[in-house]
Design brief:
Oligomer: single chain
Number of strands: 14
Helix content: 25-40%
Radius of gyration: 19 Å
Strand order of the largest sheet: 9-11-8-12-10-13-14
């Protein structure tokens, strides 16, 4: 491990995993933390709950399709949702730089309230700190969330139910959030109508989970994108993953920007995209349910779990070749969430 922290340590890629494993897990080690799921699944006398926390430092604070407040609520709800939990309560902690606009702060807080109400959760506690001008960059937000989880769903986070032949489903095109942040921040001279896909996914996950068995794993596709999550999955068990590039939903504008800038949407962050791993016999029924939901209407089966190329994510390309999809080493863009 290096002697200093770099931006790549916050990427969700290989360096992030090294930092987590070699520092935080090393010293905080316990049976709950060591599972490294999106939400900690903890047992209480009344049953099981999911508990998660996240911090948001996105730049710019306002971006096409959302702002840091909406993002903080959606992101925490989604971490609970993909763990199979029903989100219930959130906390919100603010670190605000001296001189930040009260009007902009009100916009951020209002968007948090609106998103929480829409998702059916309550923001029940919080904290505010103000630091001297120049000691922060406008505003940072930390959120934590608690949700209830049925005993039948608590293995979803761990991936222990993943089996050979399982199908991999995503709910839409990739890269929207990172493209929205990039074009808003970097002033690239690219005119685009692409907005972040920032959304709370709990209504989608609950509609699928309540209607179907056979959901073996879920994960939201944030930092590190689809590529990062798939590489985490193949590290769980003795299997590989085969993807079909032709089946991965794509947006022509996003594809064009990626080609122009030499980027790959597979590695790009999303804030409203989820990956399901499902029993192969249930996949068509699950897809039908997803297509009836606004956040799942563009879903697609993009690959499957295989006993070939164990520990590797392999994509069959549109031109008939094969390409290994590795864990991203760093990040294409810092401060995307």
């Amino acid at each position: 491990m290096s002697d200093t922290v770099s931006l790549n340590h916050g990427s969700g890629g290989r360096l992030s995993h090294e930092l987590i494993d070699n520092l935080f897990v090393k010293y905080f080690s316990n049976s709950v933390l060591n599972a490294q799921t999106d939400s900690a699944i903890v047992g209480l006398d009344s049953g099981h709950v999911a508990f998660t926390t996240d911090s948001y430092v996105v730049d710019p604070v306002f971006f096409p399709g959302g702002n840091i407040g909406k993002l903080s609520v959606c992101g925490t709800i989604n971490d609970l949702s993909v763990s199979g939990a029903v989100p219930a309560y959130l906390s919100a902690g603010f670190i605000i730089e001296e001189g930040f606009s009260i009007h902009k702060l009100e916009q951020i807080v209002c968007s948090m309230a609106e998103e929480a109400e829409k998702a059916g959760v309550k923001i029940v506690t919080g904290d505010t700190k103000v630091v001297n001008k120049g000691k922060a960059d406008k505003i940072y937000i930390n959120t934590a969330g608690i949700g209830t989880i049925d005993a039948a769903r608590k293995e979803i986070s761990f991936g222990t139910q993943i089996r050979l032949g399982d199908k991999i489903i995503v709910n839409g095109d990739l890269g929207r959030h990172e493209i929205a942040i990039m074009t808003a921040r970097e002033k690239l001279g690219i005119e685009t109508s692409i907005e972040s896909d920032c959304a709370s996914l709990n209504s989608l996950t609950e509609s699928v989970l309540s209607a179907h068995g056979g959901i073996h794993f879920m994960r939201d596709l944030t930092r590190g994108g689809l590529a990062g999550v798939l590489n985490e999955v193949v590290a769980i068990g003795e299997f590989g993953i085969t993807l079909n590039e032709e089946m991965i939903p794509a947006n022509d504008k996003i594809r064009s920007i990626c080609e122009l800038l030499g980027l790959d949407a597979l590695f790009m962050a999303n804030e409203g995209r989820i990956m399901f791993i499902t029993d192969s016999e249930e996949a068509d029924k699950i897809m039908k349910t997803m297509k009836n939901h606004p956040l799942g209407k563009n879903c697609a089966v993009i690959g499957e779990i295989t006993d070939l190329h164990e520990g590797t994510v392999l994509m069959e390309t549109e031109i008939g070749g094969r390409r290994i999809i590795d864990m991203p080493a760093g990040q294409q863009l810092p401060r995307i969430c």
